[in-house]
Amino acid sequence: MKVRYSYLKDQFRNPDGIFDNLRDLVKTGDYTLGSAVEEFEERFAELIGVPYAVGVNSGTDALFLSLKALGIGPGDEVITVPNTFIATVGAIVATGAKPVFVDVMDDFTIDPALIEAAFTRKTRAILPVHYAGHPADMTEIMGSAEQFGLQVVEDACQAISASIEDRCVGTFGIAGGFSLHPLKNLNVWGDGGIIVTGSKELKNKLNLLRNHGLKNRDEVEICGFNSRLDTLQAVVGNYLINDMESVTETRIKWALRIDRGIAGLGEYLKVPRRKPDRRYVYHLYMLMAQDRDRLLAFLNNKGIEAKIHYPIPLHLQKAFQFLGYQKGDFPVTESQTASIITLPVHQHLNEGQVDFMIESLHEFYGT
């Protein structure tokens, strides 16, 4: 049996509907910041529960432009985590600011109790990551931000519609950045991102920043960037947003089925804690595994495309040697990266494939 990690070939078994929408776009020639972009922004804002959304080129730009719009740049520091994808920290570095790492908890998200120790007079913002679709502890994080007078930009790139007590992540801070990468539960056909905010002032500045700083065709208000969400991608987003909830619910269903199926393997597999007041959307289904590398090879040989996200934490990457961190500085992150394994949990799996993964885990550990 084959259990694929990437499902993109399965996403459009009958693509006629979306092709009709794309043909309509071609007839208009409305390719740059077209009407479909505004429609998608309005629908996404409604989905997340905020007044404003701004479509941009990628999830990375969603974070970068949010920080830039807040005036963060050289000489500033931004607190974040070392276990995230490079885009989070790359967005901070692109502003000219310095990333300052804080270790994580057993659910892969930032440990709020460690934020105070990372604070300096140069700290301007906290960039928590809702990693793998796991909501970070925003109540504690916002408390720390208020205590130290910091802005909060949420990296919700992997967490569309994840929530805490029915409030979507991305809505707690001044801004939240989301990715529309093809493997997200709401995606486009390439790169795409979107920023949400409750601030009209910030929304207006982001609209300028993403489009060269143009106030109109002839007037440049500020120096900006070329980071518009393509109208073509917005057409795709408007088509797929209709299925986002069913996609997410399917991923949750398979994740919980695996949780139950491996409940007897607690000696070998550690599932991160799930809090009852939170909605986990499982962009990644990650757990810690004993003898991880051998398990990975075993699963791959059986046709299960398990992966590792990510084996080398950012503070130990060559690109961030200039920050001066050493092995041992973030013990929880380092322990997790040595044992994390990711199983396929997407919406195109079937019950037989999910049960095959569960059976294979039991087989490997001899139970």
Radius of gyration: 21 Å
Strand content: 5-15%
Approximately how much helix is present in the residues? 25-40%
SS element count, helices? 12
Domain count: the total is 2
Mean pLDDT: 97
Question: How many strand elements?
Answer: 13
CATH architecture of the largest domain: 3-Layer(aba) Sandwich
Biggest sheet, strands in spatial order? 1-9-8-5-4-2-3
At the first level of CATH, what is the class of the largest domain?
Alpha Beta
Under CATH, the topology of the largest domain is which?
Aspartate Aminotransferase, domain 2
Q: Structural class, from helix and strand content?
A: alpha/beta
Report the principal-axis shape. Answer: globular
**Main sheet, how many strands, which sense, barrel?**
7 strands, mixed
Stretches where pLDDT is under 50 for at least 5 consecutive residues are none
Distance between the termini: 21 Å
Please sum up the structure shown.
With 367 residues, the protein is of the alpha/beta class.
Structure characterization notes:
Strands 1-9-8-5-4-2-3 form a seven-stranded mixed beta sheet, sandwiched between helices. The protein has a three-stranded antiparallel beta sheet with strand order 7-6-11, with no helix packed on it. The longest helix has 18 residues, at 244-261. The chain has twelve helices and 13 strands. It starts with 15 loop residues before the first helix and ends with a helix. The radius of gyration is 21 Å and the shape is globular. The chain has 367 residues and is of the alpha/beta class. Helix 3 packs across helix 7 (200-209) and helix 9 runs parallel beside helix 12 (351-364). It has two domains: 8-243, Type I PLP-dependent aspartate aminotransferase-like (Major domain) (Aspartate Aminotransferase, domain 2), CATH 3.40.640.10; 244-364, Aspartate Aminotransferase, domain 1 (Alpha-Beta Complex).
